[in-house]
Amino acid sequence: MIKVNCFAHLKELAGGNMIQIDRKEMSVKELLEEVQRQYHIQSDSVLVAINEEYALPDDQVTEHDTVALIPPVSGG
Amino acid sequence: MFEVTSEPLSIEAVSQKVIRPEAGAVVTFTGTVREFTKGKRTLYLTYEAYASMAEKQLKRIGDEITTRWPDAVTAISHRTGKLEISDIAVVIAVSTPHRKDAYEANEYAIERIKQIVPIWKKEKWEDGEEWIGDQLESNAGVPEKEEIR
């Protein structure tokens, strides 16, 4: 089970701080497709962080990683 | 030197972190909550952060500044939670031997914060609320591949 932390408007779309995907390992690209399919979250501009670092589409994410969806940021 | 906190920010405290004998210039930038944006009135803002990652990314900005301006020392504090009009959301202090580098490095820091630091703000208006940074806003920060690695 891959647990994915959600922030900002994604948290509201997902209905909570965290969503779960029933896989042990997948690519970032697959993860975003799954998120879009299950939660109807438009993931075009959403990045994925693995263990608090930005990940690229081909990176692998496993159930042991800390995973987060990062919508466009707006700090400052 | 790099923190995300729900406590009110002190300009003095952040700039004190970078003051040192080698520095002849300290530039501080203070980002405050603006009441009117394009004629629309903001009542208050709520900032949310992925705090542990945000602090790492702030430190990374400090490292980038040291690469570009080797004599610079940077400290950044960003606040989260509910902020009223004119409250301070971010303080960036950069010290360098000479002022030009400090000005440049400080501007670089705020531009990078808006690109790569996982902090979001929700605007509460008189007639609604919205997370800033979604597709409806042109200033959304989506880091490019070369910006995140």
From TrEMBL, chain A:
Annotated keywords: Nucleotide-binding
Residues passing through the membrane, by range: none
InterPro entries the record matches: Beta-grasp_dom_sf (IPR012675), MOCS2A (IPR044672), Mopterin_synth/thiamin_S_b (IPR016155), ThiS/MoaD-like (IPR003749)
Family, as annotated: Belongs to the MoaD family.
Protein name as it appears in the record: Molybdopterin synthase sulfur carrier subunit
SUPFAM superfamilies: MoaD/ThiS (SSF54285)
Gene3D superfamilies for the chain: 3.10.20.30
Superkingdom to which the source organism belongs: Bacteria
Lineage of origin: Bacteria, Bacillati, Bacillota, Bacilli, Bacillales
Keyword Nucleotide-binding (UniProt): yes
Annotated CDD domains: Ubl_MoaD
Pfam families: ThiS
From TrEMBL, chain B:
Gene3D superfamilies: Molybdopterin biosynthesis MoaE subunit
Protein origin, superkingdom: Bacteria
Protein name listed in UniProt: Molybdenum cofactor biosynthesis protein MoaE
A Pfam entry, by short name: MoaE
Residue ranges of the TM segments: none
InterPro entries: MoaE_sf, Mopterin_biosynth_MoaE
